[in-house]
Amino acid sequence: MAMDVASISTPPGAGTSDRPQRVRRFWGRVRMAVTRTRLEYVFLVIALAWGVAQVFIVPPLQVPDEGDHWFRAWALTDGQFTADRQGMITLPGVFARTVDLYTRLVSDSRGLPVSLEGQAGFSGYVDLFNSPGPAGIVSVASRVSAYGPMGYLPQAVGIGIGRLAGAPPLTCFYLARLGDLFAAVALLFFAIRLAPFGKQLFTLLALLPMTMFELASVSCDALTISGAMFFTSLLLWASARVRLRGIDVVVMLSAAAVLLNVKPGYWALVLLVLLIRPAQLGGRTRYVAFVVASALVVTGVFLAVFGLTTTGARVEAAGGPQAQLLFIAHQPLDFLRILWSNLVNESFRWTLESIGVLGWLAIPLPPAFYLFVVVVGLVFFLRMREEVSLQLWRRALLAAVGVAVFLTLAVALYAFLEPTGSERVFFQGRYLAPVWLLLLLSIYGVRFAQRQRGVLVIVGALLVMMVQNMHTLISTYYP
Hints:
With about 475 residues, the chain is mainly alpha-helical. It has helices spanning about 5-10, 15, 20-35, 40-55, 65-75, 95-105, 125-130, 155-165, 170-195, 200-205, 210-215, 220-240, 245-260, 280, 285-310, 310-320, 320-330, 330-355, 365-385, 390-415, 435-445, 450-475, and strands at about 90, 135-140, 355-360, 365. Helix 17 crosses helix 18.
């Protein structure tokens, strides 16, 4: 009887014996592809997928102050670069119902509810946004009139495209969100790409839930956060160059003028120009001219915006920023006492909000998630193996600028949002992303296992505990 040759030469099971090896080879290729992929492209894919989904998942007006930003962005497409001297902007009559419902709800200190279902005057977003209103225009008091127009340009582009195509306001609203998202993601993409070190840190902070929630909205906070992170990365990149060209200087000055004036309070980031060395610019004279020019462009743009947006209504309501700044200047210790009290009492809430408290700061994430972020962050810093050749003076400068930004933010928030003599500084966690970035960059790559630095960290932690303990005792026994 003839025998099948194949049955003799191939032992049973031989077809599957090398399957584990093929699987290992496959996952090896996947792992190699992942490790070779540039981190900014990983960010781009995740941020766009996450952000675009969130643009349509989150109902309109559910991001803090989003209605105010929406009104301001639309007004910009009508040529209203600022509010008028009474703090008012004008909108088409179709906005009447949205303005009425939104202003009525935000007058409540709790902000908008998680759902508008059941609210008087609400029968769906299509009806709210697109129903014909009264003929002519409606006027609305702008609660974001102190902000310059720079933070609304991407949203205005989206709205402008929709208006040219004849799209209704609700469609324009989503186009405004998409414009904001794309602009902010582009800035963060280049921030990660330019960063000479800490790309992982930039990526992690850029993808925090709170950051992504703002990016996928009409809020100018998207450009504030991404612009501050881009400016930080740009200056770190510039500080690592052997020689800076004229075009590099122009880009840095332009970025300082525009991105540090999206919202008041981030001016201290301009101090990062001190990372540059005179030799990179061709001598001490050019260096001094560059530093002075950086300060002047930031200050000049702020003063121009401040002059154009100061309204009689704001002065009458709260004494105006001028009165607040005079209070801070004449009683700096009282202001620092107020700020310290807020920091002690609110720092935990600010930290949670920095990670992510969504909606109108009314939708917390699961407690386990916050713990996860903290644990991952600690492991990341303790086990990070990236070589960072950053001199001690530059680490100190990054930390100092982080503290300075916190202080200028406090001054701006107190001056623009609080009446004179208020005991509150109205911080929210989303404001602090650039501050966290600078503080974390200042210790990025430090080998905590090294004995000398380990001792410094322990001593620093002990001093913090001592100061906090003494503060608690003094405030308790000597109120």
